[in-house]
Design a protein that fits this description.
The protein has 286 residues and is mainly alpha-helical. The chain has 12 helices and no strands.
Length: 286
């Protein structure tokens, strides 16, 4: 069972991008459906487990969920702009760098010289990995340098939402299943705010939005199994194995969504993925 819990997060988070992309719709439809699926799953978990949490943790989890929407919307826009196989390595690399830096400057991690050296080396590997996966031989369409550069800048800013989402639980007394429901409620509130300010309230009436709830259910399976994996396998092992999701999603983009890469782009993408996973390993292990 511990092996299953170890592998499910990578599988679930890796399959989410090709699933929502295959279902289709605008990013507004995809983020609405994902949040809806997460809410349904979290209500089910709450009904079965009956977790308890204090008021502070509940409110902060709401806030974390709302910030997650910022990061996820950025990813969904990225899928349409430059494809899954480019968006996911870049977004994942930015997340790992951001959470590592927050851990250092806010939570006092990397307190020893060895940890600092390993952490800096890990961040360098992440940056090089991001750079490799963003290199293109195409001059127009999704692969053009201009589109990729603009999307990278967008992902850099929206990934701040992911970093806040991942960092808030570190400062809470309650975490894991106890904050799953309030996080999901925060995600739904965040979606409503996003749809209002982006003038896309028509997403509430579109069938594609509700079909994308499948993506939210898949994400929920990954999230819940990750909680159990941390318990059974330890934080470092669970986290490092979960990063294999970026490999699964990248391959999914190429195989399921038929995203084309030249031979050079393919080689650089593989090297970039190896560096990103190695960077994740180095920044978390120490």
């Amino acid at each position: 069972m511990s092996l299953l819990m170890l592998l499910l997060p990578a599988l679930g988070w890796g399959l989410l991008p090709p699933i929502v992309s295959k279902i289709g719709g605008r990013p507004a439809n995809q983020i609405f459906g994902t949040a809806l699926g997460l809410l349904i799953a979290s209500i089910g978990v709450f009904a079965v487990v009956h977790p308890t949490t204090d008021a502070k943790s509940f409110i902060m989890a709401l806030l974390a969920g709302a910030f997650w929407i910022m990061g996820q919307v950025g990813q969904y826009i990225g899928y349409q702009k430059i494809g899954i196989s480019r968006t996911m390595p870049i977004s994942t690399g930015f997340q790992l760098i951001g959470t590592a830096l927050i851990g250092v400057f806010i939570f006092g991690e990397w307190s020893t010289t060895v940890q600092r050296i390993a952490g800096v080396c890990g961040i360098i590997m992440l940056i090089i990995g991001i750079w490799f996966t963003s290199i293109t031989d195409q001059s127009d369409g999704k692969g053009s340098r201009g589109v990729i550069l603009r999307t990278i800048i967008m992902l850099l800013f929206t990934t701040i939402g992911y970093c806040i989402y991942e960092s808030i639980p570190k400062g809470l007394e309650n975490s894991g299943l106890a904050i799953f429901l309030p996080e999901s409620l925060g995600m739904c509130l965040g979606v409503i705010v996003y749809l209002i300010f982006s003038h896309q309230l028509d997403a509430f009436r579109q069938k594609t939005s509700y079909l994308n709830a499948i993506g939210g259910l898949v994400f929920s399976i990954a999230a819940v199994s990750y909680i159990f994996s941390v318990r059974d396998n330890g934080v470092n092992t669970a986290f490092i194995v979960s990063q294999v999701s970026v490999v699964i999603s990248t391959l999914g983009g190429m195989l399921v969504m038929h995203e084309h890469k030249s031979h050079r782009e393919m080689v650089l993408t593989v090297l970039g993925l190896v560096l990103i996973i190695a960077g994740a390993f180095t920044t978390s292990l120490f």
